[in-house]
Specification:
It contains four helices and no strands. It is an all-alpha fold and about 160 residues long. The relative contact order is 0.11.
Length: about 160
């Protein structure tokens, strides 16, 4: 009778995963170039509601001139090219930053879930090893019983 033995081989990714935690977008210690740091700084400053409020005030400077022109095209152009572009840009960046933050939280939760599943799988492997030992013990006993009944005289 074959023996019950499952030989668990840990995936090589498991050790690599332990040594390298997930990286966050703006985590300290990430190496970035000067251009990246400048871009990130400007994005953080422009991508704030305070920047949106400042841009609203800035656009209002040219509003009287647009209205005074009496030209509908100039007023529409002011709304589209000045107000909407300047004000919506930081508001959109704020929204994208919030979405990115939530996405990172979900990614970390998924990473943690994967770690928990891995630990559960390891416990299952240990359980299977114990079951293999119990099954092998039963198989040995059955073989012993079969051997003794085969040797017993027939009536």
């Amino acid at each position: 009778m074959p023996k019950a033995n499952y030989d668990y081989q840990e995936h090589p990714h498991v050790e690599a995963r332990k040594s390298v935690p997930p990286k966050l977008t703006h985590q300290k210690g990430n190496k970035t170039s000067l251009n990246d740091r400048i871009g990130l700084f400007i994005t953080k400053k422009v991508g704030s509601m305070w920047a949106a409020y400042a841009f609203v005030l800035l656009t209002l400077i040219s509003l009287p001139a647009a209205i005074a022109s009496g030209n509908e095209l100039v007023i529409v152009a002011w709304v589209a090219q000045t107000f909407l572009q300047l004000v919506l840009l930081p508001v959109i960046i704020v929204g994208q930053n919030l979405q990115a933050h939530e996405s990172e939280k979900r990614a970390i939760a998924t990473y943690d879930d994967a770690g928990a599943i891995l630990e559960e799988a390891k416990k299952i492997q240990k359980h299977l090893t114990v079951q293999d030992e119990a099954l092998n013990h039963l198989i040995d006993r059955i073989e012993t019983i079969e051997g003794s009944t085969a040797k017993a005289p027939k009536k």
